[in-house]
Amino acid sequence: MNLKIFSVINSILLSVFLVQPLSASPSIMVKPEILYPGDVFLIKTVYPSNRLLRAELNGREFPFSSCGERCSYAIGAIDIETRPGTYKIKIYFKNGKNIIKTLRIRKKEFPVISLTLPEERVTLSPEDEARANKEEKLLRSIWQLRTERLWYGGFIRPLDNEISTGFGVKRLINGHKISIHKGIDIKAKEGEPVRAVNNGRVVLREELFFGGRTIVIDHGEGLFSVYMHLSDYNVKEGDMVSKHDLIGFAGSTGRSSGPHLHFGFKVKDISVNPESLFELRELP
Ligand SMILES: [Zn+2]
Is residue 244's pLDDT more than 90? Predict the structure, then answer.
């Protein structure tokens, strides 16, 4: 090809690409593409993290981290109470600009289970209530921790058994008390090994009123995994753990009607459906 023609074509091509305005869709990816209340999601962009401030959805902020030269990501979550509909994720840049990506959150019917329990198991004594409230406060303070990233790649299942009670199940107890299941119950035999779902640091190892023997792992960046009703522990507070490490044994301690593992996951203070976390395979 004639050099002159080549350079003309080249400059036309260049000008076409250079004058393209910032367009939201090709530069921002949200996974999964179909979202339900309670889901965790990943936002990935081609912009370097030092140009980005944060992503915002429903007034909640999710900061960006780097996953390479032209790669930034943020982990977000949709609260279970979020109504289905169209939402906007706003990505803020340090130069004051922002771009918007539209998200559709679909409707999900969470089952309702009616339970009849002895009334003394439903209405707590003042001492038990005080203890449960104190423990709730302790857990809430843990969800405020923001530490360096320790996790990498996808999250594994803590125990490879069937699920007995899914996330979001509403329990109507004695016709008057509603409790929403903000985790999953995994079937287990007494003493079955429970594994760390990713790298992290043990920030709680304590016997709680409702949760029984409980472990909380801080994975960094506001991500926490919670393991309840354990029969015994294999780690202590402050321990660093790796993905697949044996951290404890399934049991039925605390308010539990038989051996199982209650597993919960938090993105900041949002309880998310662990199933949506395990299925998120694009995590950097
Ligand atoms: Zn449970």
Answer: yes
**C-alpha of residue 230 to centroid of ligand 1, in Å:** 12
User: Considering the domain 112-278 in this protein, what is its CATH number?
Assistant: 2.70.70.10
Over residues 207-224, the pLDDT tens digits come to 999 999 999 999 999 999
Distance (angstroms) between ligand 1 centre and the Cα of 3 equals 70
Tell me, in angstroms, the distance from the centre of ligand 1 to residue 49's CA. Answer: 37
The alpha carbon of 126 and the centre of ligand 1 are apart by a number of angstroms equal to 24
CATH architecture of the domain with range 3-105: Sandwich (2.60)
Give the distance, in angstroms, between the CA of residue 247 and the centroid of all CA atoms in the same chain. 20
CATH 2.60.40.10-classified regions of the chain = 3-105
Q: What is the mean pLDDT of residues 39-57?
A: 93
Q: Phi, psi at residue 277, to the nearest 5°?
A: -75, -45
Q: Ligand 1 centroid vs 21 CA: distance in angstroms?
A: 49
| Distance between Cα 146 and ligand 1 center (Å) | 26
If you measure from the C-alpha of residue 112 to the centroid of ligand 1, how many angstroms do you get, rounded to a whole number?
14
Q: Between residues 233 and 18, which one has the greater pLDDT?
A: 233
Which amino acid, one-letter code, is at 4?
Answer: K
Higher-scoring residue by pLDDT: 192, 22: 192
Quote the pLDDT of residue 176. Answer: 84
Cα torsion 267, 201, 132, 194 to 10°: value is: 90
Run of H or E residues at 198: none
